[in-house]
Amino acid sequence: MEILEKNMKLLFWTVGLIVISSVVILLQKLWLKPRRIRSVLEKQGVNGPKPSFPFGNVSEMQQIHPQSPASVDSKEEWVYSLFPYFHTWKQRYGSVFLYSTGTKQHLYVEKPELIREINLHMSLDIGRPSYLTKPLLPMLGTGILRSNGSLWSFQRNLIVPEFFITKIKNMIDIMEGSTLSIIKKWERCITENEENIAEIVIETDLKVLTEDSISKACFGMDYAQGKQIFAKMAAMQAVFSRTSILFGFLNLSFLPTRENKEMWRLKKEVDMLIMEMIHDREIKNQNKDDEKQTDLLQKILEGAACDTTLNANAKGIFKAKHNMNQLIIDLCKNIFFAGSESTAIAVSWTLLLLALHPEWQQRVRSEILDTFDKKMPHSFSDMRKLQKLKVLTMVIQESLRLYGPAIVASREALADIKLGEFVIPKGIYMWMLIPSLHRDVENWGPDATEFKPERFANGVSGACKYPQAYIPFGLGSRICLGQNFAMTEMKVVLSLLLYNFSFNVSPNYQHCPMFNMLLMPKYGLRLLVSKVHYKDE
């Protein structure tokens, strides 16, 4: 009996300790840690809407509706409808403020000086928000767009050399060939119309163009093979456009709901398709009669194999049981997503702006004719000619400023860091709304909302007061690794399209940019496309 009483007491104290420990952990996570993070910034003069336990400012965010200033042109109202609470809070608390979604503490940044400091901070102490990794796992896995630390560094070192200009030069023929296919399709559409004008939803075909380019240039595969991958990833993208995931609301992706089951199915199917692509490449590599590929997929496989060998000698960066095949699949998925859709959308918005400003469309076309002397296509082998397209470059830069595909830039402080006048505590999530930042009157001048490519006549450094606050490709060490590829492809595609076609805005076009992970046209970019004829034809 005495032994039983001792055991009962021991059990009682054990349960008590577990309960107390659990309460302390919950208190630390739900109250003390968030409060500490906020107090560090509040002591530095950073304020924001007062959070309520346990959901922070979620209720207020859901109640704030878009209200655009009366002075803003109607075509700019969409900017204020994306995340209206940001604009409301900016008016109340300034360009830097705190807000909360549950236990997560966020720092909104629209102060150019602070963004400059973030841009210049190149250490691994600033990374992608870790809480995004889990909900985005089916689509991006632990690929480069969502990884941090050594895992990110490993992938970056594999990719960076493949996007040097010297490598991109060898991809131009592929970009050109993909564009010519779209040109032939549009020419057929024009000739089938009695008025020789076709109304075309351009982003649909441009997406096919860029998907074809990335499939061939980076993975050595036909578009027919990659089409299934792109389609299934587009279906996943539609789900992940929900702001509840983006800003850290309650994540229920682990529940077996119909939506989640569909997501898990798509993830499995995409992984299998990419694994088949990898398997086909490995078979070709084993066949001595086949010429060994030198594309990005090949470099990824060789880099993974090299680290696997190092792991066997306890010198690799990953643990011996690390699933290297899944890492390769995830990295490929990231490239499929980032390398196609964003460029297609960027070209689409640029063509819309040129359709709205025909004088600039003609200036670009004239420059193309002068530079290539009417010898298009098959004229891009000389990279110096592409670099001479100064007017086109200015137009692209201005288009990326006003309608860049990326809407938000997000970072997590993985350690306490000093950024200019601020000490940023570990665990804070920093958010930058790019469309609003790129329209900041203090940085860009009173004409910040207007399409004026001439502002980039002397490059980005001459276009605004704080050039580091121009971030269409991201910022800091996490800047888009495919920036050179994207800019080159945009120049090739736009040169060919503007050489062949004239663009006007369709009367059926409805201007309604929306957030769908990227800045997308809600009702499609409908343009009137006609063939350009030259006197000597």
UniProtKB/TrEMBL annotation:
InterPro entries: Cyt_P450 (IPR001128), Cyt_P450_CS (IPR017972), Cyt_P450_E_grp-I (IPR002401), Cyt_P450_sf (IPR036396), Cytochrome_P450_Monooxygen (IPR050665). One of its GO terms (cellular component) is membrane. Keywords: Heme, Iron, Membrane, Metal-binding, Monooxygenase, Oxidoreductase, Transmembrane, Transmembrane helix. Its cofactor is heme. It is found in: Membrane. The keyword Transmembrane helix applies. The chain crosses the membrane at residues 12-32, 234-255. It is a single-pass membrane protein. Its main location: membrane. Heme binds at C480. SUPFAM superfamilies: Cytochrome P450 (SSF48264). GO terms for molecular function: heme binding; iron ion binding; monooxygenase activity; oxidoreductase activity, acting on paired donors, with incorporation or reduction of molecular oxygen. Belongs to the cytochrome P450 family. This is Cytochrome P450 714A1-like. It comes from Cicer arietinum (Chickpea).
